[in-house]
Design goal:
By secondary structure, the protein is mainly α. It contains 17 helices and no strands. Helix 4 runs antiparallel to helix 15 and helix 13 packs antiparallel against helix 14. The longest helix has 52 residues.
């Protein structure tokens, strides 16, 4: 029998071979991570430089619009970090009945931020018409404080967790309406509001693309680190908000109370409206808002209906996760194409855009009902994302053009609340329907066709429209 020395001699080559393999694998893995890091860095720098050039194009750098676009990218990056840190991944791990109950509660809770922003914060922000920079900075600073508090309570059962998370959502909505209300003040000559809003949205997407990998890496260490990263972004955003150009605080030429009612600036009716700080919704905004409810309803419906339908009744040959990812990816692609189209087109008629978006959604839903399959579902998702994006850009430009500055922030807050309500109603309908593909698609098509007829036949479409301001 071989002694211990001979056995060790026989085993040592095997150990050395294993160690050499592990070392080689470690070197290969390290080089792979380094290559990925270099590639991500190059892409991030390219995206950043491209976004800077686009933000400064056509006079946006001299008017101050580029500053707001860059601030929008930073805001989206910080919001993405917060969302990633708080995101859950339990949907596919719980029974369908329990998931429906939890999603219903989530749908109800999504209205809370809007219920606070519309009646409370919107009028308060309107009173900062001469201090928009400080109003926008306040939304950034408040979220910086709240995410720092979240970082200390996310790993514990602190009672501050949910109030702080709700506060961050409210601050995000307040920032969006304040920024949208201030954008017309820095619009360069020759650039339309639809294009300016599209460029702001595009910058937000770039911010998310750059920030998301960083946030995911920090979230792997711990959600608190991801929130601290968001804190830094919000602090930088606060400083950038204060350093916005002085034109953001100027109200010259914006005292247009009475502009929509046809009264002279010195009439008693105009004076009473100015004193109350209120004004009736212009026909153009009413029409655009109603038209937007159709695409937004479809978005909520598809999000919830498809999530349960594809899990319980997947298409043969495809996993539920793949199908849901394909539909969501198609919707994201449609959203991106809509933003790109809005930022490139020189002239976009908002009324025509919202009508086409509504009718395109109805046609895609009918096609999916007649021929249910992977292609038609992806096409429906693409059209839904494209239509929702173009319709929202058109609505924002209509409000910025036709609603007086004195109540513009409140108009944005109330329009966002209405659209969120439409999304929630669509989500509840998607939850309530049985997981039957054709029944769901037919329901969506019928609702969209009926709503399209209602909007097109509404009196607000036939009412005389005000003269356009700021294109």
């Amino acid at each position: 029998m071989p002694d211990d020395t001979e056995r060790r001699t026989a085993v040592d080559p095997e150990r050395r071979t294993a160690k050499d393999s592990m070392a080689t694998g470690a070197r290969v893995t390290g080089r792979g991570f380094a290559s990925v890091a270099r590639g991500t860095g190059r892409f991030s720098r390219f995206a950043f430089r491209s976004a800077r050039r686009a933000a400064a194009a056509e006079g946006a750098d001299t008017s101050g619009l580029s500053r707001i676009i860059e601030l929008g990218a930073l805001n989206a990056a910080a919001d993405a970090a917060v969302a990633i840190s708080l995101a859950g991944t339990l949907f596919f791990q719980i029974p369908t009945g329990q998931a429906r109950g939890q999603v219903s509660l989530f749908l109800a809770l999504t209205l809370l931020p809007f219920a606070i922003v519309a009646p409370l914060i919107g009028p308060v922000l309107d009173r900062f018409s001469h201090g928009r920079r400080w109003a926008i900075a306040a939304t950034m600073a408040a979220r910086a404080f709240l995410v720092w508090a979240l970082a200390g309570s996310v790993d514990s059962d602190s009672l501050w967790l949910f109030p702080a998370a709700l506060g961050v959502l409210v601050g995000s909505k307040a920032y969006n309406v304040a920024r949208a209300a201030a954008l017309p003040r820095v619009l360069p000559e020759g650039l339309t509001l639809v294009t300016a809003n599209a460029r702001t949205s595009m910058a937000g997407m770039v911010g998310v693309v750059i920030s998301a990998p960083i946030a995911v890496g920090l979230a792997a260490i711990g959600p608190a680190w991801c929130l601290r990263y968001a804190f830094v972004l919000f602090v930088v955003g606060t400083i950038m908000s204060i350093r916005l150009p002085s034109r953001v605080d100027s109200t010259q030429g914006e005292d247009n109370i009475g502009f929509l009612t046809g009264e002279s600036p010195d009439s008693p009716e105009t004076s009473r409206a100015r004193g109350r700080g209120t004004i009736r919704i212009p026909p153009s905004m009413s029409f655009a808002l109603r038209a937007n409810c159709g695409p937004r309803w479809l978005s909520g419906f598809l999000t919830l209906f498809m999530a349960f339908l594809l899990r319980d009744h997947p298409i043969d040959g495809y996993s539920p996760q793949f199908l849901l990812a394909a539909v969501i990816g198609s919707a994201g692609l449609g959203n991106f194409v809509g933003i790109a189209a809005g930022s490139v087109f020189k002239r976009v008629n908002p009324k025509v855009a919202v009508v086409l978006a509504m009718l395109a959604d109805a046609a895609a839903a009918i096609l999916a009902a007649v021929s249910y399959g992977l292609f038609t579902l992806c096409l429906l998702g693409f059209v839904a994302g494209l239509a929702q994006c173009l319709a929202k850009l058109s609505l924002d430009s209509t409000i910025q053009r036709d609603v007086p500055e004195r109540v513009r922030t409140s108009a944005f807050a109330r329009s966002d609340t209405t659209l969120q309500l439409a999304w929630v109603v669509g989500g509840f309908v998607g939850l309530a329907l049985p997981a039957n593909p054709r029944a769901g698609m037919i329901t969506a098509a019928v609702v969209l066709v009926a709503w399209s007829l209602f909007v097109l036949a509404s009196p607000s479409r036939r009412a005389p429209e005000p003269k356009a301001v700021g294109a």
